[in-house]
Structures are given as structure tokens and as C-alpha cells.
Known about the structure:
The protein is mainly beta. It contains no helices and 16 strands. Helix content is 0%, strand content 50%.
Amino acid sequence: NPPDNRVASLGSLTKTGTGPVTVDQIHLSGDLGTASTTALAVDTIITMRVGRDVLGRISAVNTSFDQNFLVGRHFLGDLTVSNGSVTNLDVTGDIGNSTSPVTITIGGNLVRVQAANVYADLQVTGAVQTFRVIGSPGDFVGSFEAGRLDVVAGGTGEFYTAGQVIVDPNGFTINGDVAVPAAFNSTGVGPH
């Protein structure tokens, strides 16, 4: 649990010098960033807990640590992790929205992503282990590109949506083996 003395909201935190900047923990009870701005641009982010919404872009340019992003409501900004992995992208509400989808680019693995609805283009160089869209209706609208869809770190791989899967004309692109039981059909994707 975040400490009781956490910061309410943070507009922006960006690296301005040449040395490495590591953010070990961010605990906010409110929002991170503002719409259409850079909320966070540093080398490494280890843990981020946002009580309400992520509104601006987040980038970690040269990270070598696994990262955890926990969001209490909606994740409405782009996310770029150039040279690293994300352990958890756990969003209580939606990732993106129907009028303003987001782009998520991960240079390594994306071990687990979970949200109510996802309106995003996901580009993951490495593997995706667990992708769960669990809201009502539980839709995934956008595109999904990954090096592979498989079991990472001893888990049980899964690609699941409770509702529709609507992808752009490029559809799903997985540049390697699908190493999990999965079924792709017109009404959704789920364990097979």
C-alpha cells in the first residue's frame, strides 16, 4: 500500500541533463501529467502507482530494470520503454479511449497487462505473457505486434478479452511462435 503522505498529483518530471536519472518509486493519490504533454521522461522507472489517471506521455529511454505501472483509473498517455521490460501494466479502468487511442512501445518483454478496455497500438519487441481485457464490454481496439506470445518468467501465458477484438487493417502480428493455448475468433480472444 502507498504511504499516507503520498503526493496528490504530478504535472511533469523530465530529465534535462546528460547523466542517468532513475525514479525508484512514484506514489500519487491523483493524476500524473496533463493531456498531450510529457508527464515523465527519465532513464529508468522502477515502480509507479497513480491513484487516478495517467494523462501525459511516459518514456524511459535506457532502462535496464523491470518496471511496474499500477494505475487506479485510466492510462491515457503513450508509454515508451526503449530498452527494457515492463513487469506489470495494471490499469483499473481503460488504456486509451475510443476517441484518443494510445501507443505502447516496449523494447523488451511485457509480462502482464490488464485493463477494463484497451484502445491502443501495442508494439512489443520481446514476448507478451499475459494480456487481459476484463471490463464490460471488455473491448480491445487497435493493433498488437509482439516478438512472440508465450510464457515469460514461469507464468501461464494468456491472451483474453471479455468483449470484441477490433484491430486495424494490419491485424495481429506475432513474429515468432505462439507458445500459449489461445483461440482467435470474431467475437473475442480467450483461453483455448
